[in-house]
Amino acid sequence: MKIFLKLSSLIFLLTIAFNKNTHAQQKPNIIVFLVDDMGWQDTSLPFWDKVTPLNRRYHTPNMERLAKEGMKFTNAYAMPVCTPSRTSMLSGMNSARSRITNWTSPAFNNPTDNQDEQFEAPDWNYNGLSPMDNVPHTQYATTYPELLKEAGYFTVHIGKAHWGSAGTAGASPYNMGFLVNIGGHAAGHPQSYLPADNYGNQPGKASWQAVPDLEEYYGSSDFLTEALTKEAIKTLENPVKNKQPFYLNMSHYAVHDPLQADPRFYQKYIELGLDVQEAKYASLVEGMDKSLGDIMDYLKRKKIDQNTIIIFMSDNGGLSLTPPRGGKPHTQNLPLKSGKGSVNEGGIREPMIVKWPGTTKPSSIAHQYVIIEDFFPTILEMAGIKNYKTVQQVDGKSFVPVLKKPDYSDNNRTLYWHIPNKWTTNDGPGINYRSAIRKGDWKLIYNMRDRSTNLYNLKTDIGEENDLALKFPDKVKELTTLLGTWLRSCKANMPIIKASGKSAPLPDEN
Amino acid sequence: MKIFLKLSSLIFLLTIAFNKNTHAQQKPNIIVFLVDDMGWQDTSLPFWDKVTPLNRRYHTPNMERLAKEGMKFTNAYAMPVCTPSRTSMLSGMNSARSRITNWTSPAFNNPTDNQDEQFEAPDWNYNGLSPMDNVPHTQYATTYPELLKEAGYFTVHIGKAHWGSAGTAGASPYNMGFLVNIGGHAAGHPQSYLPADNYGNQPGKASWQAVPDLEEYYGSSDFLTEALTKEAIKTLENPVKNKQPFYLNMSHYAVHDPLQADPRFYQKYIELGLDVQEAKYASLVEGMDKSLGDIMDYLKRKKIDQNTIIIFMSDNGGLSLTPPRGGKPHTQNLPLKSGKGSVNEGGIREPMIVKWPGTTKPSSIAHQYVIIEDFFPTILEMAGIKNYKTVQQVDGKSFVPVLKKPDYSDNNRTLYWHIPNKWTTNDGPGINYRSAIRKGDWKLIYNMRDRSTNLYNLKTDIGEENDLALKFPDKVKELTTLLGTWLRSCKANMPIIKASGKSAPLPDEN
C-alpha cells in the first residue's frame, strides 16, 4: 500500500513535469495576416452569394485554401482608412472614441485633413495611438500585443505599422508590445516595392516611406512582399524551435499604392486583358496571396499548422480613386459602392477568413457582422488571457462564439463608423464627413455637410442603390437616435462649421 | 521486484522529464557589456599594479563589484578604432584579414580616410562586415550571434552597432543574428544623449546619428544610457519568463563623443575640480557604470545571476584628442601612451572583466593577453556550441582556459594590429599608418611612413617610453618577420605611396 501510494505520487509528479514541459506548446500561435487597401472583391474567393466578374479577375488560390480549412466571414468590417482600422484593432476602441478618425502623417503634429470651404477640421488625434499618457493628440491605450507578450507570447511585427507619427512612442512597434519589429514605422505605404530601388532607401531620394530593416534584400530579386514573408519566416524559427507560442502581425504593405508590378504575376494579367494599372494591382494581390501560401506551407512543414490560428483581414476597402486605379472611378469594388475612404460598403467591407484548428469547421461560412475592433477581445480570448486590464474602454466584442457556431446570429448589435474629416480633396460616394450605423440588415449613413441621411437594406441591396429613408421614417429615426446617442457617449468630435465656428450637429440634433 | 523495477523506470522517466524541462535553463545566459571609447584607466577599478590618479578620478562601483564577483583581465586588447573592433568581435577575424581597418561611414561607399600627402588610402572594406557574399567593399562572415540564435538563444542587440554602412545588410542587427534590435544602425555615435533632444530625432535637424527606436523616452528624464538600459531589461523579460537562454549585446553609445553631461553625475565631478569637458566625460563613465549595476541587480532579482555570464569590455582606448577631451593631448590614458586610433597601449588596452559563475573565481586576476577577436570562439564555447561552420577564417582563440585557470600563461602567442589608414588629420603617437605585434612582454610597432620600428618591453615599460630597437636587433628582426609574414598570409592591404603608385612595403620587405 505504501509503495502504491508512492507510485501514484510519482505518476502525479510525472504528469506535472510533462504538463509543465508542454504547457508552452499548448497555447495556440496566432497570426493576423493583414492586407493593406484590399477590397472585398479583390480575390477569386467569393465573399458574396454570387461569383462576380472581379472574383474571376483575381487569382488568390491560397485565400481559397485558407477558406477551405477555416471559416469565411461575409460581413466583416473595418474603418474606411488605414490608421483608424489599425489603431482600432490594436486598442479594441472604435475610432469615434479614440478620435483617430483619419490617417496619421509620418510627420509629428501634422494633421492630414484637406482644406474645405464649409468645414474646419475637428480636433482629432492626428498623432495616433500611444502606449504612454499625455502625448499631444494621441489616444493612450494598452495594446493586445503587449498583453500577449506579458502572457509569454513571442510577439512579432512585420511590415506596415502606421499607428502613430514619427517621434511618438506609438510609431515604434517596440513600444506597442512587439519583441521584434521588421519594417514597421510611422509611414503608411512603401516608397517602393522594388529591391532595385532598395525599397526607397537611396541617397538623396529616400522619403519617410523608405522601408526600413530590409538591407539584406537590396538589389535582390525579392519584391517587397516576398522579402517581408522571408523575414517573418526567419523570425518565427526561434519561437518555433523553443516551442514558445507566437503572435505574428503579418502586416503587408501590399496592395497599397504605389501600384508597382509584382514581376512574378504581372504579365499574366496583361495577357488576360487588364489595363496596365489594373494588371499591376492584380499582381500585387497575387503576390500577397503567395505570401499567405508560403506561411501556411511553413506552418505545415514545422508541424504547427494544427496549433496555429490564422486571421486574414484587410484594413479598409479597395482604393477607387482613378488614377492611380484604372477603370471608372468608384467601380473597383462592385457590387459594392465606392471604395477606400467611404462609409459605403466598398470602403469598409473586408475579405475576412479565420482558421482555428479544432474550433472552426472546414469550409464554414459566417454571416454575422463583425468589425475590426473585435480583434482585440477575440485574440485575447483565443490566447486564454482573462481578467486583463486596459487603460482604455474597449468597444470590440469577441467573435469566438461565431467561430464556434457559424450560424450564430445577433441582429441587435450595432456597428459604427465615423469620419468627421476630409480624407480626399473631392467628395465621392460616402467619402468625407460621414457617420454610419449598421443594425441587422439596416444601414444608415449621415452626411455632415447637408445633414441628410440615407437608409439601405443590405440584405436586398448590397450595392446601396435604393435609399429607403423616405419609405421607413421610423427606422431612420431609430438609427439616427442610436448613432447620435452613441457618438455623444464616446465624445466623438465633429468638424467645425466655418460660417458659425460651431461643431457640426450630431445626427439626432435638431 | 516487479514493482521495484517499475518504480525505478518511473524515476528514470521523471528524471528525463525534468531534465528536458530544465534543459533550456541550463545553457548559460551571456551578456557582453560593451562600452564605446572607454580607456583602460577610466575606472576606479585598477587594471595596473598601481592605483593611478585616473583610477582616483573615476567612480565605477559596479565595475568594482563585477571584478569582485569575477575575473579581471589586465592585458586585454581591442583594435584602435570602433568598427574594426566591433566587426572583429562579431566575426572572430583580425581586422588585417577582414580589411575593415578603419571606422565605416554611415553613408554607403564613403571611405572615411583623411587626405594625406604621402599616401593614397588602401582599398579596404569601407562598407564593413556583411552576412551576405558579394557586397562591394565588405567582408562576408558568419557572426556568432547568428550561431547562438540557431542554437536556440534569444539574441538581443541594444545600442550602438556600427558594423556596416547604411544600405548594406551588415548595417542592420536583424541581418547579423539578432532577434531584437533597439537602437543599432549604421552610425557610430549618438547625435545626442539627451531626451530633450529626442536623442537627435528633431524635424530638420536629425542626422545619420539620430538614435532610433527610443520614441517612448522623448522628452523624459532618461539620459540615453538609462533609456537603453531600460529597453534591455524590458526585452529580457520575455526570455527570462520562458526560461530561454539569452544573449544580450549591451552595447552602449557612452562614452563616445559628443561629450554631454549625464546630469545625474556631472555636478559631483565639477565639485571635485575637473574641467567642464572632463567632468562631462566622467559623468558619462559613471552613467555607464550605473547601467552595469542595474543589469546585475536585475539578474539577481530574477534569480538568474548564477546562470548568467557577464563580459565587460571597451571597443578601443580612450579618446586623447583635445578638444573634445580636456587636458593636454594624449595624456588621457596615463600611464599608457596615446589614445583612440593609436597602436600604442593607450589606443588598444581595455578594461575587461568576466564573470562566469561556477567557472571564474571571485576577485581573480588574469595577466594573459587576450584580444577582441577571441570573443567569437570563447562565447560559442561558453554556450556549448561545437562543430559550427563559418564562411570566414577565425583568428580568435578561446580564452575559456584562462577563465578556468587565472594563472594560465602563453607567452608564445602573437597578437596583431594593423591600421593602414589615416584615421585623423594629424599623426599622433602611434596614430595613422601603423602595424604592431605583441609576443610575450615584447611589442614592436612598424611605422609605414618612414619604415621605422620601435621595440618596447611592456613588463618594465607599460608607457612605451624606452625604445629598445637599437639594443635588441634580433628581437626586432624576429618580430618584424613574424609581423610581415602574418600580414602577407592574411593578404593585408597597405596604403599606396603617391610618388610611386606602389603599395607601402610590409615591415619585413627590403
How would you characterize the overall build of this protein?
The structure is a homodimer of 510-residue chains. With 510 residues, chain A is of the alpha/beta class. The first copy, chain A, has one domain (27-406): Alkaline Phosphatase, subunit A, CATH 3.40.720. Helices cover 28% and strands 15% of the residues of chain A. Chain A contains 13 helices and 17 strands. Chain A has helices spanning 2-26, 53-57, 61-69, 82-91, 95-98, 144-150, 224-241, 266-271, 276-301, 345-348, 375-382, 400-404, 473-489; strands spanning 29-35, 71-77, 119-120, 129-130, 139-140, 154-159, 180-182, 246-251, 308-314, 349-355, 364-366, 370-371, 414-419, 434-439, 442-447, 453-457, 496-497. In chain A, a hairpin with a 5-residue loop joins strand 15 (442-447) and strand 16. In chain A, helix 3 (61-69) packs across helix 9 (276-301) and helix 7 packs parallel to helix 9. The longest helix of chain A has 26 residues, at 276-301. The first copy, chain A, is globular, with a radius of gyration of 23 Å. The model of chain A is unreliable at 1-24 (pLDDT under 50). The interface between A and B is large, with 44 and 44 residues.
